[in-house]
Amino acid sequence: MKNRVKYIIILSVFLVLQIIWFNHVRLFGYFTPIIFIYPLLILPLQKNESLNLFLAFLAGLILDLVSNTGGIFVATAVFITYVRKIYFMIFKNPAQNIDDIQINKIAITQKILYISVFVLIAQIMIYALDAFNAGLLISKWQNILFNTLISIFFIVFFDLVFFNPAKK
Amino acid sequence: MIKLLRYLSTKRSFLVFVFLELIALVLIIKTNDYAQLKTHDFQTAIAGSFNQKINIINRHFYLQIYNDSLLKQNTYLLKQLQNRDQNTNAIPAVLPGQYQYIPAYVISNQYNLQHNTLLVNKGEIDGVQPDNGVIATNGIAGVVQKTSLHYAKVISILNKSLKINVALKNTNYSGFLQWTGKDPNRFEVIDLPVNAPIKKGDTIITGGMSGIFPKGIPVGQIYGYHTVPGRKSYVIYIKSFADMTDLGPVYVIKNRLKTEIDSLKM
Question: For residue B20, with 0-12 CB atoms within 10 Å meaning exposed, 13-18 middle and 19 or more buried, which class applies?
């Protein structure tokens, strides 16, 4: 329960940062970092999964309400929260049990790869759902790529500096 | 039945996932649906009041910049007024009082997506209606899509679905302005006839044909162009005068005679 409250506080802080500051950032002309997904990525895999999904839904809904974007962020947040388990089922060590994986204890290179994959998925979903046209993804690959790189940079920075000092 | 319930309970998180994604999908799709009308007011009111509070804080930091841009605009308007008084023999393009200007503030501005919108803090109660134009201090900003009592949702010119009638300054050659979807300050003008005398550095203004914007509002400056193979028209690339990423005070333009003009176009 104590852990859950900690995650809710982290999620609230990242949401506030995303809404007040990162949504208005325009690096190199037109790139905007998406950092609100970080707390969703570090939610425990084993604990109440439905509650995790509701937290993601709530976070996405708040972002959608203040950004006037329908349900784009809801769909993205819920999707990445759910498919995390599938990601670890595919990429885990064969000898390891999925229930033994603790995200805050995985090696830093694996963690960066994990963050990168999900930031890319989030960016693709946001662009595809906004345009409601998958064909547009091909013409927008540069925007998706640079937004992804910038988001990964910020998220890894937050992870190393604030949440994982031992692995610096 | 019990077996089914037992099976479903093992897949609870998957069912929750599907349920929440369906809600998200409905929220996205409803932008084209009648149902959106019902939730629109609620969403706009929340986004509006939240952004208004943020905006009140931000506005204090930009007061000097806003004041400077308002001064520039007032100077421009005074000059226009003077010119009008001098050209009393010219045939007026619009009737006196045809366009009403309603000052407003942008309280939410998107520019990262492909279909961007703005929220302004004036709504039905102030006389704002759908299809009213919105201009920034140095160029056009968008067209009102929907209104609630105190707010209006505006389709930004940074929206790939919006086309605005524009013209080459000092001529009657007109085309359509549309966003390229990449840089928030660069646009293209399509369907401008090839016999139009264009060159780099020329100014593009609003064409006034749609009745949304009066003719003559500066839009941007030409930095490149080419002809369309097989069509007798140009594609012109322009850099907008208005910085769409830094919108503060704007004016909603209401054409009092638009309904009358539109009824004759049918």
Answer: buried
DSSP A50: H
- What was the pLDDT predicted at B8? 64
Residue A62 half-sphere exposure, CB side, CA atoms within 13 Å? 16
A78 CB within 8 Å of a chain B CB: yes
The backbone torsions φ and ψ at residue B68, rounded to the nearest 5 degrees and listed phi first, read -60, -45
pLDDT in tens, A19-58: 888 888 777 767 888 999 999 998 888 777 888 899 999 9
Q: Å from A81 to nearest chain B CA?
A: 9
The alpha carbon of B149 is separated from its chain's Cα centroid by a whole number of angstroms, namely: 19
CA distance B164 to B155: 11
Which listed CATH number (3.30.750.44, 3.40.50.720, 2.40.10.350, 3.40.190.10) goes with B164-240? 2.40.10.350
| pLDDT per residue as tens digits for the range B175-197 | 999 998 888 889 999 989 888 89
Q: Is the pLDDT of residue B155 over 80?
A: yes
- Verify whether the Cβ–Cβ distance A53 to B183 is below 8 Å: no
- At B89-107, the pLDDT tens digits run 555 556 666 788 888 889 8
Range of the domain at A27: 2-167
Task: Report ipTM (2 d.p.).
Answer: 0.79
Beta bridge partners of B234: B192, B227
Residue A41: what are its φ and ψ, rounded to 5°?
-75, -25
CB contact (8 A) between residue A71 and residue B117: no
pLDDT tens for A58-89 read: 999 999 888 888 888 999 999 999 998 888 88
Among chain B residues, CA nearest to A53: B17
Q: Measured between CB atoms, does B223 come within 8 Å of chain A?
A: no
Closest residue in A to B26 (Cα–Cα): A71
Determine contact, residues B183/A30, Cβ cutoff 8 Å.
yes
Residue-range domain boundaries for chain B:
2-33, 164-240
CB-nearest to A136 from B12, B16, B114 is: B114
